[in-house]
């Protein structure tokens, strides 16, 4: 551990920051997972979960070594988005009747987070996790409390993983088999996460509209 600390503290190039190295490992694990999705569920899910668990460590490393960076923040968010989306894409293959639902969820996830990050940058925030005072309380709780953030994200990813495992071993979630039961247990938190995505999307859109209208008003005032 001491050797790792010494290595991390010596890094001055952003691309070699410890949280970014963790990010690269997440990307590699995710693609290994995708490779094994059709043929080896156990290896696929071990790699997928390791990638997700490392998501909780990169932020810790960034704070521990004072290595926060814009590159790392974008790498983290993009990895989150494409990892989940790739698994959802596979789920459309094994649950074809749910294709529209999965397409909608991918669109909601990407648009919500893109609007939110752009809104944060446009308002001068140093991180998308820092919200305005008038932001919805549920969203502020989600981003300000790491325990809530981790729990919600864990159950969100667990639901997709369980759907995949159901397709591999049980065939349907409408049964009383163990994996299907676990998927139903995860469902309420999963639905809550989608609700947060909707709130986040609406809030970010309103913030951008407000900023645009403010600029237009300032421009008109200068002309007058």
From TrEMBL:
<dbReference type="InterPro" id="IPR043130">
    <property type="entry name" value="CDP-OH_PTrfase_TM_dom"/>
</dbReference>
<dbReference type="InterPro" id="IPR048254">
    <property type="entry name" value="CDP_ALCOHOL_P_TRANSF_CS"/>
</dbReference>
<dbReference type="GO" id="GO:0005741">
    <property type="term" value="C:mitochondrial outer membrane"/>
</dbReference>
<protein>
    <recommendedName>
        <fullName>CDP-diacylglycerol--inositol 3-phosphatidyltransferase</fullName>
        <ecNumber>2.7.8.11</ecNumber>
    </recommendedName>
</protein>
<dbReference type="GO" id="GO:0006661">
    <property type="term" value="P:phosphatidylinositol biosynthetic process"/>
</dbReference>
<keyword id="KW-1133">Transmembrane helix</keyword>
<feature type="transmembrane region" description="Helical">
    <location>
        <begin position="148"/>
        <end position="165"/>
    </location>
</feature>
<keyword id="KW-0443">Lipid metabolism</keyword>
<keyword id="KW-0444">Lipid biosynthesis</keyword>
<keyword id="KW-1208">Phospholipid metabolism</keyword>
<keyword id="KW-0479">Metal-binding</keyword>
<dbReference type="Pfam" id="PF01066">
    <property type="entry name" value="CDP-OH_P_transf"/>
</dbReference>
<feature type="transmembrane region" description="Helical">
    <location>
        <begin position="171"/>
        <end position="192"/>
    </location>
</feature>
<dbReference type="InterPro" id="IPR014387">
    <property type="entry name" value="CDP_diag_ino_3_P_euk"/>
</dbReference>
<dbReference type="GO" id="GO:0005794">
    <property type="term" value="C:Golgi apparatus"/>
</dbReference>
<dbReference type="GO" id="GO:0003881">
    <property type="term" value="F:CDP-diacylglycerol-inositol 3-phosphatidyltransferase activity"/>
</dbReference>
<feature type="transmembrane region" description="Helical">
    <location>
        <begin position="85"/>
        <end position="108"/>
    </location>
</feature>
<keyword id="KW-0808">Transferase</keyword>
<keyword id="KW-0594">Phospholipid biosynthesis</keyword>
<dbReference type="InterPro" id="IPR000462">
    <property type="entry name" value="CDP-OH_P_trans"/>
</dbReference>
<keyword id="KW-0812">Transmembrane</keyword>
<keyword id="KW-0460">Magnesium</keyword>
<dbReference type="GO" id="GO:0046872">
    <property type="term" value="F:metal ion binding"/>
</dbReference>
<comment type="similarity">
    <text>Belongs to the CDP-alcohol phosphatidyltransferase class-I family.</text>
</comment>
<keyword id="KW-0464">Manganese</keyword>
<keyword id="KW-0472">Membrane</keyword>
<feature type="transmembrane region" description="Helical">
    <location>
        <begin position="21"/>
        <end position="51"/>
    </location>
</feature>
